[in-house]
Structures are given as C-alpha cells and as structure tokens.
TrEMBL record:
Annotated compartments: Cell membrane
PANTHER family: ORGANIC ANION TRANSPORTER, SOLUTE CARRIER ORGANIC ANION TRANSPORTER FAMILY MEMBER 4A1
Transmembrane segments: 49-69, 89-110, 117-139, 178-203, 215-242, 262-286, 334-354, 369-391, 403-421, 535-553, 574-595, 624-646, 667-685
The name this protein goes by in its record: Solute carrier organic anion transporter family member
Topology versus the membrane: Multi-pass membrane protein
GO biological process: monoatomic ion transport
Record-stated family: Belongs to the organo anion transporter (TC 2.A.60) family.
Segments forming domain Major facilitator superfamily (MFS) profile: 50-650
The entry's keywords: Cell membrane, Disulfide bond, Ion transport, Membrane, Transmembrane, Transmembrane helix, Transport
GO molecular function: transmembrane transporter activity
Amino acid sequence: MEKHNVNDFEEPGENLKHKIEDEDDAEKLLCGYGACTPRWLQGFHNAKCLLLVLGICAFIQSFVVNAIFPVGLSTLERRFKMTSTHTGIISSWYDFAVLLVVFPVCHWGNNGHKGRWIGWGGVIMALGSLICALPHWMVDIYHPDGNSLANQTDFGQCTNRDDPECAGKPHSSWFNPYFWMFILGQTLHGVGSTPLFSIGTTYMDENVSQKASPVYLAIHAVLTSFGPVIGVFAGGFLLNLYDDFDRVDTIPMERSDPRWVGAWWVGFIISSISALMIAFPILAFARELPEAKRHRAKDVNQCHAANGDVNAKAPRDLTKLPACVWKILSNPTFLVCIFVGIFESIIINGFAAFMPKILETLLSTNPTLASYLSSVVIFAAATGVMVGGTIIRQLKLQVGGMLKMIVVCHVIALIFTTGLLSHCPQREFVGINLGYEDLSIEKSHDFSISSRCNSECHCKMEWNPVCDRNTGHMYYSACHAGCTGMTKNQGSTEWSGCGCLTSNSTFHNLIHGIKEHPEVLNQGYCHQDCGYREYILMVTLFVTVVASFASGIPTQQIMLRVVPFDQRTLALGVNWTFVRLLGFIPGGILFGVIIDTACLEWGESCGKATSCLVYDPFKLSWTITGLAIVCKLLSILATIIGYMTYRPSDLDNAGKGAWRRNAPSKPSTVIVILLFISLLTTIAFPNKPSYMPVTVTCDNFFPPKMI
C-alpha cells in the first residue's frame, strides 16, 4: 500500500487559506481617504511614490529647520535683540521637542497607521512655521536708530545731543516675548517632524527589499538635503528684501548698510503653506504597500546575537516596554551606533544651526554671501549620503563591512577638519582690537571706543560702522570717528570732517611711511582680502562634510539590521532619545556659547548687552576645531569597539565581514587605539599661549536633522 505524507493533503488547504488572507489584506491596502479609493489613484500606491512624498515632506522640514532659520540667525539677533546663546537655545529646542514625543510616537505609531501619523505631523509642522513668522507683525516697524521720531538734523554725526532715555526695558533677556514665540514654533516643528524621521524611516524600509533599502534611504536623504540647498539660496535672496517691505513705502537704508535687516519671515510662510499641502497625499497611503510582505519574506537575518530572535515583537503593553528597551540597549553594536550618533550630533547640529554665522565670521563676509557659501557645505552633505548608499549597494556590505566603512570615513573627516584653522585675518576696529593710535590692543587689556578725538561728540551706542579704505580700519560709527558731515555719492554714503581719522592717520602714516591720508570715510565694512585661505577652508570643509555624511547611511542601516524586524521603530526611538538628549540639544547650545565667548564687542541698549557686533575669528576657529577633533576621535574609538564586539546570529549570511576574534589580541588592540588617540590629541592641541581658548570637550552624532 502506498504511503502518503499527511502534510501533502493539508498543504493545498493551508495555501488556499493564506491566499484568501492575502487577498483580504490586499483589499484593505488601498490608497485613498476612507471609502474614497478610486482605481486611478492605486497607480500611485507604490514605493517610488511613497519615497517621493516622504522626500518632499523631509525637504520642507529641512528647508525651514536647517536653512531658513540658520540663514536668518544674525538677522533675528539684530532684529529682536537676542544673543547667540538665545538663538542656540531656540535651535536646540527643536531637538528638545523631539525628545519629549519620540517614545510615544514610536510606540503608538509603530502599532498604528504610519502614514497618518506622518501626515498629521506635517499639519503640526505647518502650524509651527506660521507661529515663527508671527513676530514680524507683532513687532513695530524696524527703525535702525531705534527712534522713528528722531530729529532729522541728527543723522549720527558728531554733535551736541542729549543722552538718550530708555523708554522701556530692552528685550535682550529671557523675558523677550519674541524669544518665546520662536520657542513655541520650534516646539511644533519638532513634534510635527518626529513621525517623519522615526516611524517614517521604518515605513520606507519595510515596504522595499533589504537590498534596495540603502538606495531608497540614500535618495530620501538626498531629497532631504536639497531642502537646505534651496533654502540657503532662497534665504539669501529674501535677506536682500527689506524686512518691512510690506509695511513701508520707501526703504530707509541701503542694502550694504551693516544695520540692514532682510525679510527673514517670508521663508516661514512658504514652509507653512508647503507643509500643509504635502500632508494630504501622505494621508492617502495605506498601512503598508501591497508588495511589502513579498519583500519581507526575502530579508536576511543580520540581528546581533544579543537580539537573535528576528521574530521578536515590540510590546503593545506599556508595562513591558522597559524590558524591551533594556534588551535593545544590551545589544553592543546598537549601543555603539548610539555613541557614534551622540559624538557626531554635537558637531552636526552646531554647524547646521550656525554654519552661515561661522562662515560669516571666519571669512569676514556678510550674511547673504555666507548663506550662499553654506550651500557648498549642503551640496557636500548630499554628495556624502549618496556616496555612502552607493558604496553599500555596490560592495554589498553587511554589518561588519559597514563598520569598517564608518571608521574610514571618520578618519578622513578627522584629517580634513583641521582646515577650519585657515581663516581670514581679523577685521581691524578702532577702539575694539586696534587703538586710536594705530596700535593693536592686547587681548588681556580692556578697550574703549571713546577717545579724546570724540569726547565732545556725545555719541549714542548705535552700531553703524564706517570704513577707512586707505588703511582698512573701521570705526564703531561715524560719530565715534568724530565725523561732522555726510554726503551721498553715487548711492554710497561718505563722511567728512572726521577728527579721529586725522589723528589716527597721522600715526598710521608715520608708521607705514604714507604722506597723505584720506579725507572721507565710507559707510559699511571694509573689504577683506582672504587670499588662498578662503579656498583652503571651503575645500577641506567640503571633504570633511562628504566623509561625515557618507558614514550616516551605514550607521542607519546597522541600527535597522541588528535588531528584530518588529522592534526597529522602537530601536530608532531609543536611539533618537539618547542622541537628542546628549547630542543635538547640548550641541546647539554649546556652539551658541562658543560663538558668544569669541565676541569682542557687544551691542548695548539701556546699559545691557544685546547681540554681538564683532567676533574674534582666531579664537572661534581654534575652539570649534578642537571640539570637532575630540568628537571625531571618540567616534572612531566607539566604532572600532563596535567592530570588535559584533557577533551576528546568522554567521552564514551576516558573518562574512565579521572580524576574527582572538581573545589575546583584544587588550593589545585597545592599547594601540588609546595610544593612537593620545598621540593625535597631543598633535592637535599643543601648548598654546595663555590667551588661546580652552578646548571644550564633547560627547555626541547621528545623521543630522536632515537624515
């Protein structure tokens, strides 16, 4: 009698059952709004369209958070009398808002409809941009002299005038209402973008194949990086428009005037409308795409041995959440990714928030040109993420190979970071870093913009620098230069009868052997010739950013691969919590404080400091370079440790790139690493004069806000 396997008879029934379930699921996976699911709309229900709408949403988020806001930092400080510490806190508050909601979003969003979470997040983000633009209509029309009813005969010259009275409390304090308006706007920006960059990553990853995931995520990152690229050009263009062009008939000053305030608020309005428009297509996508299960069946298990159960589920019960989080944190490779993210996020968030301001200081240029130069850095970021994704796909790197790639990228970035030390010479301001007798002021001594030549001028503390084009020296204002006359010549303002100019030029001519001195001063800054330094700084910065961002995609891929499939959203939430708390939040504040410590001259209003007027590029470059080097060294060390401790659960598929672990070699390897770091630290930070800034240590990175 012929024997048959019982399973042979049961298999068709089981297949039929699964087929029916798949058909039922397919009926539910329709694109639309509720019962409105037209057939023509299903043609857009695929991974490419999902990538497009998520990319556009990320583009808008990075456009406003990583471009419009940073480009306008100097303008906001001048317009609302805030310091860099204030604007640094506003920038970091975005990350603080993310930190507050990332766990609830990851927990409930992972079990819910990811598309709807992301779509409603876009609506909240639109509201945040609108609130950031509201201070434009809340504040009075901008008047550079602070008094719209000023005497028309007083145009800032040296003359007898009464001391100005303080009509009200200056806003450069923690009670500044506009400061809190920006805090509220950034809070909504952070809350609205959290679903996009937490569950949005897994939403994309789970709907494409494991092989295609690096390319899809890299393209998503490139679309995200286009936001700052377009944003810096748009922001630079908008800063050429006068702030109150919608409320005044005539522009009261020239665009070259250092007191110029551009239309910073228009970018927020554009972002608000765009975010609201893109939210609706995202809300139309189903819980998952029809082909998602087919891709998932072909995935390779690359989980770390500590989380080897690829089928482990994320807990729905909140009481079981701490145990699941602890198990994820017991994964050493995932923990290393968190540490690398922390170390790098300080640098990335600081530079993302203050890049235009840093370039403005180091290259002695204006905010508009600095915003255009920042676009070079953003192009480098886009290049980096594409290079990272392409290398992973072409070389078919798995976790072990991706860890090697991260080490190589950070070593390259470390070498080229030192290019930040190449900066333009310090601008020479009489009374700030140059004496009225043409002698440089020692950094350890106090300075004064008052002198015998302007003692009878009764000058107001209003920043309106003028330039001596013959010597390259600048004065705090025409009044502080002792000027009595003003004329308009071919669109530029010239000052004559300057008593301090005659006095200062006498000493300058004696020292430099010049027989004649100029008779006029010109409004605005003097042109600063940086020579080759500008090209060295921009080229090395470009390479540094490419290398740093090329490591972002493998870091992201490792985090998605070394934890169970259903726990990836929770794992990303854990990563974002630590990275935001220990990296992004202190990073923006730390850079704001560093920039403030490099200030040479503060503006004053009613006896209180407002925003910084003149920075020391030498001190600023050394401080941020030291900070970047320390963070890069810590990132390299953490990645090497992760490389040594990675133990895949599926050695046939994921272990091809793993290191051979010989126990006796581990201590010697660690010793070599520590000696290497000690040597680099000694080279990077030799003994310097007493006036050099103290290097600030750090501990933080993640692929930036834009990833």
